[in-house]
Request: fold
Amino acid sequence: MIIRPAKAADFDAIWPILHDVFRAGETYAVDPRISKEACRDYWMTTPAATYVAEGQGGILGTYYIRTNQPGGGAHICNCGYVVAEAARGQGLARQMCEHSQVMARALGYRAMQFNFVLASNVGAVGLWHRLGFETVGTIPDAFDHPRAGMVNAFVMYKRL
Reply:
């Protein structure tokens, strides 16, 4: 497995992974009907950096790093991670998160904040805690989950 910067040509392989996750509407507050072009802008254009995790089966995961807030808050980044369904449960999210912390430091960020981690995403919440992130806030009934109904979202933070 290698994690490398994403190239524009990678988006055709990234799109089905993102499309499936966004369409499911269970982990990201992204319009499930997002178009391919809008998704390309969201995942590839506006972030400070986008990476792919590539294995023998091609691109198996991806993540972005973006500045969380402008101006006085620009020293804190935000990241988003997606793993292809076929690659889940193999430690790829952990590898991408660890990689993202190294890359974020190299980009000059001093902390990482996840703004909207759904309480229903138990695997992600547990992983972020194991990697040293603290839950610093809870937003009650923040997300209308298609199966679980209204769920809380957590704000999670880690100094880099």
User: Anything to note?
Assistant: The beta strands are 2-5, 49-55, 58-67, 76-83, 111-118, 134-145, 149-159.
